Amino acid sequence: MESLSTIFNTLLLKKESISTIIQSEVYSRWAAIFTLLVGVCHGIISYFQMPSAYIEFDSPVLQSIAFLIVILIGIFMVFITRVGLTFLLWAGGKAFGGPGLLRVLNRLTSFAIVPIIIGLPAITSINAGNSGNVLLNSLLFIALIWIYFISVKIIEVSQNLNKWKAYSAALFAFIFFASVYYIIIPPAS
């Protein structure tokens, strides 16, 4: 229970919790669990946002297989996102004079992406070609800002950088991440 409390405090931007996660390998297992949970959420939300013509089958077995495939794709997408964000935060930290510590950043990044759960409906809606609504877009904006601030604290604590360097490193990582995301998954037309 103490581990979950530490993770929760990390999501609330507590430096002491981030330091605890940095120092303990126990959180590597929790990182994998959280990546899996966010991936399953992504898959489920994607499944329900897809047009029924793509995933509707007469056979219940095929329907279940389609559901599992979409969930596995969601897990894969979140894993790739975690790895990409890890490398970008690593590059940002190194660029501003930090030691790097890729393994530590990988562990911390899995917790940093947790807030995207509230923005997933907007992401899948936009990728499906829908404009979304004000509520979904607001939730996406909140999730991205929250992830940005978690990333800043992660860089600040793990790379021993001052605040302005951490904010700059995270900003550059997010700008690059957004441009790569846009190139790989352009908006539906």
TrEMBL record:
<keyword id="KW-1133">Transmembrane helix</keyword>
<feature type="transmembrane region" description="Helical">
    <location>
        <begin position="167"/>
        <end position="185"/>
    </location>
</feature>
<feature type="transmembrane region" description="Helical">
    <location>
        <begin position="26"/>
        <end position="45"/>
    </location>
</feature>
<feature type="transmembrane region" description="Helical">
    <location>
        <begin position="135"/>
        <end position="155"/>
    </location>
</feature>
<protein>
    <recommendedName>
        <fullName>Yip1 domain-containing protein</fullName>
    </recommendedName>
</protein>
<keyword id="KW-0812">Transmembrane</keyword>
<feature type="transmembrane region" description="Helical">
    <location>
        <begin position="104"/>
        <end position="123"/>
    </location>
</feature>
<keyword id="KW-0472">Membrane</keyword>
<feature type="transmembrane region" description="Helical">
    <location>
        <begin position="65"/>
        <end position="92"/>
    </location>
</feature>
